[in-house]
Amino acid sequence: MGREEVILKSRSEIEKLRTSNLLVAEILEILKGKVSAGITTMDLEGIADGELKRRGAHPAFKGYRGYPYCLCTSVNEEVVHGMPSVKRVLKEGDILSIDFGVCLDGYYGDAAATVAVGIASPEAIRLIEATSECLERAIPAARVGGRLYDISHEIQSCAEKSGYSVVRDFVGHGIGRSLHEPPEVPNFGRAGTGPRLKEGMVLAIEPMVNEGGSEVRILADGWTAVTADGKLSAHFEHSVAITEDGPYVLSRL
Ligand code: MF3
Ligand code: CO
Questions:
Q1: Whole-number Å distance between alpha carbons of 193 and 10
Q2: Which residue among 106, 138, 154, 227 has the highest number of C-beta atoms inside a 10 angstrom radius?
């Protein structure tokens, strides 16, 4: 895990990645604004597709290992890789994770966020806020001279202190001229271990946090990952460049 060569990026490549990730952030913001009871996850897919075409960018996920859509839309117990559907009507109190990636000028952007549909239960809101906090706590660990699993450890300890568990079957990743590059960025690990973090590494850090156990299973569609116990799951992701000036959150608006 994480042993293959990491591709370090120059300043100008990091700015290209910033442009792609800012586009992701802008479109994610539009999508979040459209989330409401009564719309379908396919409606969101249509909006994402339209925004990409308007801006001359390409969806990063569509065609990736045969995945058919621009977005992953994962509702409630769905962890990641939920597929937009005309049959999935969002309802008040659902939670929705939107994961979105683009390719612009050969450089990839990738980010995700979980939102409540209308007013969700206090339990659901607590899970969403804790998962966002896990990502925010992990970002400062993306620093020159640190170790890769410092990031992993921050996510795991943050999730577990709230009584949640982290998903182990999916991980964050390097990002650049491909959507997925080495190294893998697990959401669990021991601080002070793993490869040294260097200037020019760009990592997609993506905590997936479960209300119950960490186990997931894949539905018959071959994509949708759901919690084994049927409890809720939340997902946040930012693409972050490691620079001498500190972490540069490329997908932050
Ligand atoms: N953010 C996810 C990832 O980086 C999205 C991949 S979805 C896929 O792995 F459909 F493209 F596989
Ligand atoms: Co990702």
A1: 25
A2: 138
For ligand 1, say whether the CB of 175 is within 6 Å of any of its atoms: no
Residue 215 CA, chain-centre distance (Å), reads 18
Query: Does the structure show a pLDDT above 90 at 77?
Result: yes
The pLDDT score that the predictor gives to residue 101 is 98
Count of Cβ atoms closer than 10 Å to residue 189 Cβ: 21
180-195 pLDDT, tens digit each: 999 999 999 999 999 9
> Could you identify the atom of ligand 1 that is nearest to the CA of residue 72?
7
pLDDT at 135 over 60: yes
Q: Is 182 helix (H, G, I), strand (E, B) or coil?
A: strand
Helices of type H across the chain: 11-34, 41-55, 122-138, 148-161
Report whether pLDDT(2) > 50. Answer: no
The domain locations on the chain are 3-249
Amino acid at 106: G
Report CA(189)–ligand 2 centroid distance (Å): 18
Q: Residue written as tokens 């058919």?
A: 68
DSSP 8-state secondary structure symbol assigned to residue 237: B
Residue with CA at minimum distance from ligand 1 atom 11: 61
What is the topology classification, in CATH, of domain 3-249? Creatine Amidinohydrolase (3.90.230)
Question: Taking residues 50-55, what's their average pLDDT?
Answer: 97
